[in-house]
Amino acid sequence: MSLKVIKEKCTGCGLCYESCPNDAIDFDENDLPLFNDKCTLCKICIDECPQGALILETEVKSTAIDLSDYKGVWIFVEQNMKIIPKVVLELLSAGKDLALQLNIELAAVLIGYEIRDLASTLFQYGAEKVYFIEDQHLKDYRTIPYTDVLEYLVNKYKPEIFLFGATKQGRDLAPRLATRLKTGLTADCTGLDIEEKNLVQTRPAYGGNIIATIKTQRNRPQMATVRPKVFKMPELDPTKEGQLIEEKCDLQETDKWTKIIDIVREAKKTANLEDAQIIVSGGRGLGKPENFKLIEELADSLNACVGASRVVVDAGWIPHYHQVGQTGKTVQPKVYIACGISGQIQHLVGMKSSDFIIAVNKDPEAPIFKVADIGIVGDLFEIIPEIIKKLSNK
Amino acid sequence: MKIIVCIKQVPESTEVKLDPKTYTLDRSTSKGIINPFDVNAIEETVRIAEKFENVETIALSMGPPTAEDALKEALTYGLDAAYFLSDKAFAGADTLATSYTIAKAIEKIGSYDLILCGKQAIDGDTAQVGPGLAENLNIAQTTNVKKIEFLDESTLRVESELEDGYKIIELKLPAVLTVTKEINIPRIPNFKIARLALKKTIVKWGIQDLDNIDISKVGMDGSPTNVIKVETPEIKKDTIYLKGTPSEIANELIEKLKERHFI
Q1: Does A354 lie at the interface with B, CB-CB under 8 angstroms?
Q2: What domains are there in chain A, each with its CATH number?
Q3: Chain A residues within 8 A of B137 when measuring between CB atoms
Q4: What is the CATH number of the domain that holds B113?
Q5: What's the pTM value of the predicted model, to 2 decimals?
Q6: Which of A79, A325, B202, B244 has the fewest CB atoms within 10 Å, i.e. is most exposed?
Q7: Neighboring chain B residues of A35 at a CB cutoff of 8 Å
Q8: What is the ipTM for the molecules in this complex?
Q9: Would the CA dihedral through A294, A299, A305, A309 be positive or negative?
Q10: pLDDT grade for B27, boundaries at 50, 70 and 90
Q11: Among candidates A115, A147, A176, A161, which has minimal Cα distance to A249?
């Protein structure tokens, strides 16, 4: 597989050279691009070329499996102590849409221990079937037994699409399972669609600087982890019922299994950052870690949660669970107030869907203003204390 | 005990790479560095080696020829040896093909106890190669580890981050762990150790050097996922700018929030 230039189409404009993140393009004496061995076949230049002069030469490969054997959209039901995180329900709504387009059924996969009653919730949120395995070995999430059970179900019932929440658990489990099944997995998707019967997955990469569209055309199931808060919650229909398919799987504990000694819950104030109505976030403009107090005060006076940019989390000013952005949390509050955050793409992808965005920054060119409904160009140390004062007087 | 730390070279900063006018990637800053989470994995490897006797430490990476620099830098932290996988046949690999290829190299290095990786690379942000390695090697895994403690030679107690806290997990070696930033603060490499590192040779392996490797499972041909399109996102809103003294701005802002019933 290699990149080729169609000489007749190339105008030598150099856009491919500009777009290459790997410095992999040189030019020959006729100004035609040459690809050196730094090329990782990332294809960014192919999309950048306005002439369509770059192509990837591939051999046409036959598919090893019969794709038509695989039917149905499956949603993995993460649950922690019988609580289903919202992202699972969001996936039921996203999955329903895909299932309708493909004219196939939507199923949820529920595995664990003493969780049978959760199945009715899944039907009410739109699952037509629930595949169910109950085993005391599955009480707490552990990578290997969960992978074993899902492998068994996939091989028996052959789903076409299998979606997981892009949570800590989903991103531990899905790659192990996809590797076992030798199929494709796309991480942390922010968009799903169907095109020519294939799942079309979109996701940000390079810190959100690019949005990649990815397909798994030759393998099944097509697997993806999907970012929380991207899809809307489905409507609850309390009258809906569905088919429960109960299976058994013989699990034998081995040395490869991990042992859960304890689960410590903390970070109460921030655990609901993703559900917050108002978020006040601080960035490098705060100057030093102590100044986060100002952000906390403003948050307190608005009954808001505290967020942060990647730079200040990396610098250790504030714990990571406050981080909003590509490598942090995606949030969608009613009001997002960004204080001293320049607004690199990596941050913007995590908060740009907020209903109302206010940006305070002394640099009028800061990219944060591109997404702001209200921009305040000025010194946050003068403006924020004023806002706090006025809020407490109101 | 043998620890293999897997590292990836990534563009220097994903935060300053976009030209604000053209929305294209700014190449001037795309110097390669070791993926920041992998630096924590290197530091943890070195700390374990300092704490116990007879620990052999090895860095392993795969990438285009320039990525060898990441291994040179990794050695300056005091690791014993480095292996570099580079071959045109490996180019364009997705996480499935990458973890297969790296697992083949780990099998060739042999008799490992612990494999450490950063929790994810900051360019692709997939966090999939660690679990993929564990599956290919058929050993235990724990992701997002923020603390590692040895209970005995072959038993670890680790803390693995959750959205709202952490899990305390015990596991038997061999295992793959992926580590977060919280696990340690990486040192600045010591000058003497760094100088000794310059004398070390990095072992280079291409596809011919790996045993029992199935060519159809590496590189782009071995990758079930296919990048169809790459776009740079465009964002633009009509921003209302508030002007005046801080007091006037504060008043106007609070008015706007009240108008919309946010407060």
Answers
A1: no
A2: 2-57 (3.30.70.20), 69-247 (3.40.50.620), 272-393 (3.40.50.1220)
A3: none
A4: 3.40.50.620
A5: 0.82
A6: B244
A7: none
A8: 0.90
A9: negative
A10: very low
A11: A147
